[in-house]
Amino acid sequence: MSGLGNIIKKELKELMTIQTFLPIIIVALIFGSMGHSIGGIQEQMNTPPTIGVINEDNGSIATMVTNVFHAHAHVIYNGTTPDDKQAGLTKLTSNNGVALIIIPQNFTDNILHNHPGALQIHWIMKGAGIMDSIPSSTVEALISYANTNISRNLIQTNASVNASVVLNPTIRTDSTQFKGKELTGLSPSTITGLLSSQSMLIPIVMMMIIIMAGSIVITSMALEKENKTLETLLTLPVKRTSIVTGKIAAAAIIGLMLAVIYMIGMSFYLTGLTQGGGAGLASFGLVLSPTDFILIGVVLFITLIAGLSLCMLMGTFAKNFKSAQTLTFPITMLALIPMFLTMFFDFDTLPPALQALTFAIPFSHPMLASRELMFHDYTMFIAGLIYVTIFAVIVISVVVWVFKTDRLLTGGSSKWAQLLMKKRGRRF
Predict the structure, then answer these.
(1) DSSP 3-state assignment of 53?
(2) Cα atoms in the 13 Å half-sphere on the side-chain side of 356
(3) For the chain, domain boundaries
């Protein structure tokens, strides 16, 4: 074989590794799942929403509105009096319904006498993710379509109605049931909008902290190996447990600094959000107290310790600085997966398999903590905190065990290292 062929063969052997192909495969799977999710969004948008209708008015316009709902939605409850409200909400709740729409008396007369007709909408909100908001958005579109039909009918019949009423024939009063709370005056779209910036920004910031801190730890381990300082450190008369403790303590200090910076920034951000568009949620007690910020800081700190310890364990597999860059990818994926899941879905609306996956990834819990504390779901928060603590203890124990073995010096067990050295000796 020519010299060029030998060089190509050598380079292919070095490049064709699991570390080279695994990141691309995982990225392809992520894009594939995202494409499937987008397809699921389109399919869900074409699925008629499940609603209930209470029509207290016998007028022609009220009948027209109910006909629109029956034609384009799955109406599982029909009522005619205010007393039917609780029965309708109960049936919708048990059948994954979206909204109970009440058309009050004099709805038709009000519109024909230059007063917008009032629609009372009682929403049942399951989650605040992107996918969770699709059914309520579909109902919003149906209400808009009903308004369009009313306007068209008023124009066609030459009704003597003011132009302002023709253009906007109805007004709405919204009330939303969400996570055990009755939020009067807020629709699901409003709640999702108020929570979306929080639910999107916090996972992104959390992911960036994990990626930055993790890459620092893995790169540090790789550079110590490459510069042979790790071998010198391990030969010093210092207990290896002390070495591990020192490295983890340093990582803990970094994690604490990042957690403090994160919490300060997040507190200012959420304060500004509350003073601006978030005042509607604040009036219902949906704000984070100083104690909540401390609890979020605790779970964030413990998660960072677990993540940095995991990065230190990954760093033991790094042979040099170049290989360390590929080892940061699994940590990045562990941060990306819960970030995307929490953006598209509420944890409560995830399928059981995805709930288990999300809970098993330790980086998920700081991303879920703010919403859990905001809605006083302390059981889920405490369970996540306990799980992250146990995970951190296990990973730290594994790192201590690795440091007590010869893996850091040999890259594997002593037996395999000796066989490798004998094989190389025969070649020379």
Answers:
(1) strand
(2) 2
(3) 48-186, 195-427
Q: What is residue 49's DSSP assignment?
A: P
Nearest to 199 by CA among 144, 94, 129: 129
> In the block, which residue shows the tokens 């007063």?
115
Amino acid 376 reads H
Determine if the pTM surpasses 0.90.
no
- The architecture (CATH level 2) of 48-186 comes to 3-Layer(aba) Sandwich (3.40)
Q: Distance of CA 365 to CAs 39, 199, 297, 301, 385, Å?
A: 28, 13, 11, 11, 7
Out of 5-9, 68-72, 221-225, 281-285, pick the least confident: 281-285
Tens digit of pLDDT for each residue in 125-136? 888 777 778 888
8 Å CB contact between 221 and 312: yes
How high is the pLDDT of residue 143? 92
Q: Assess contact for 365 and 236: CB atoms under 8 A.
A: no
How many CA atoms does the CB half-sphere of 108 hold within 13 Å? 13
Which residues on neighbouring strands pair with residue 171, listed in sequence order?
Answer: 118
